[in-house]
Amino acid sequence: MHTIKRSTLIPLFSILTVMAFVGCQPANESKIDIPLIQAKVVAVKIPKQKVCLEDGCTQYDLQTVETNQKWIDDYFVNRMKKAEPNAFSNLADQKVKVPADQPSLSESSTYVRFVGQNYNLATFAMQTYSYSAGAAHGMSHQEFVNFDLSNKKHITVSELIKANMNQKLRDELYVSNQNWLEEHHIKKEQLQVSDNYYYGVNGIVFVYPLYELASYAEGMSELTLPYYAAKQFIKAEYLPSLPKEPN
Q1: What share of the chain is helix, strand, coil (3-state, %, to 5)?
Q2: What confidence tens digit (pLDDT) does each residue in 113-142 have?
Q3: pTM of the model
Q4: How far apart, in whole angstroms, are the C-alpha atoms of residue 168 and residue 157?
Q5: What span, in angstroms and rounded, lies between the C-alpha atoms of 172 and 162?
């Protein structure tokens, strides 16, 4: 039975870095021009780091990737602009009307980093953290964003999975992770296929938000669909190049 791993706030995905060797490309696709991703983390330019409105102030920390593919850079900056419009709007500060004895400073951060590449498949991680003034604790989330470099597109889960295979994939995902799911009292009919995934060493890893499958203390949960089973459910163009098993 496959072992479950939980995400921490800033996991080290050295296992995925191995996949950056694009030399392992399929022989029949050797003529396709696939870029080798080069990326570094940079601060996002915003008018000011702290914005104050009547209901309190928010401190922003936004960092993204600067790559050799402008369309990827634009994708992440546009995501941030949509999620944090106040950070980009250059709003005039307002007088905070929160009682002096109550907390009024919130925090919002977003960090993007490059995880790894396997020929035409490139994976990035988008980590967010938000804390509302006075809350018991902040909320963190990590979303993996996978790109098809051949077609310059984001590969959503709906595009990843073959037609009419969602339910069967869910069943296989449950069987592959049954021990952990049963320990957490999760029945098959309760499980959904997450829209957050990345390519692991042994399979496609589906990542679940805080509280969805386990407690806050356990962090984000991960369920792995082994590659030997994934072939039945995942479109061939979105499977990494893997060694062929002998007949």
Answers
A1: 25, 30, 45
A2: 999 999 999 999 999 999 999 898 899 999
A3: 0.85
A4: 14
A5: 14
